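Progress report, Aim 2. The chain analyzed during this reporting quarter is listed below.
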Amino acid sequence: MNMAYSQVISLCRKEWRIVMDTPLGYVMAVAFLIVCGFFFESNLFLMGQADMRAWFSILSLLLMFFIPAMAMRMLADEKRSGTFELLATMPITTMSIVWGKYLALWLQIMVLLALTLLYPLTLSWLGDLDMGQVLASYAAAVLLASSYAAVCLYASAITRYEVVAYVLGFVMLLLVFLLSKAMPTFSPGVQDWMVLLSPLSHYQSMLRGLIRLSDVMFFITMSGVFLTLTWFELERRRWR
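Predicted structure tokens for the chain:
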């Protein structure tokens, strides 16, 4: 257990060094904050009240664009450069590789979300902000981003080209979004199943300020499913 833990931490640190030593991470952070700030200010002036629900709704769309870009090189670059074969020959388990990459990606996303905490702090000075709802919304954003990260890591595992990994990750997330928007066109019975299986439905439910165990478990399960698929893909390649 201690060896597996140290392997995960070592891989996570390696990914962090790559992010910190290259301009990609900084460009991603600046672009994310600029886009988020634009929509935050737009909603603030349009609504004229201390409320962040509209911004959190838009945040789910922004994550669809940024998370695939952050995840695309995680495994695709290892396969393209041949370093994955080097990893495969080392005494490190495939699951440790998956968790190390996922943890690094998850921490990058958490840093970006943490930087947006400036927005509720600003609103709390300007008006009476419901901090309970804001905290529940941030919890929802963390869970949604975590599941998106697992999806995009899987996309990076099934190709050796970063651009292809981005497109695959984005398309998978886009399909989730489009199915959620098309939900009213289906029969009531189908809609009930779609609500249960749609991450955006669970996300919107949490934005109301109520964190239900069923919503939390859905995102944990979704992340687990795609991390398992990533492990299966890497394991298949490792022993091929």
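The CA atoms of residues 70 and 137 lie 22 Å apart. The chain has one domain: 2-238. These observations will guide the mutagenesis work planned for the next reporting period.
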